[in-house]
Amino acid sequence: MAEEKDPLTTSLISSQEQALAWMEKMLALARPESVFGEPIEAGDYTIITASEAWAGMGFGFGLGTAGGSGASDSAKGEADVGEGGGGGGGGGVSTGRPVAAITVGPDGVRVERIVDVTKIALAFASVLVSLIAARGRVRRAGRG
Amino acid sequence: MRFVGEMIRWQTLSGISTKVGEVSLTPVSQALTIRFPGGGLVWNRPVAVVVEYDGERTRLPVVDVTRIAVLALFGLSLAILVATVVLPARRRRV
Question: Using a CB-CB distance cutoff of 8 angstroms, which residues of chain B are in contact with residue A141?
Answer without folding.
Answer: 89
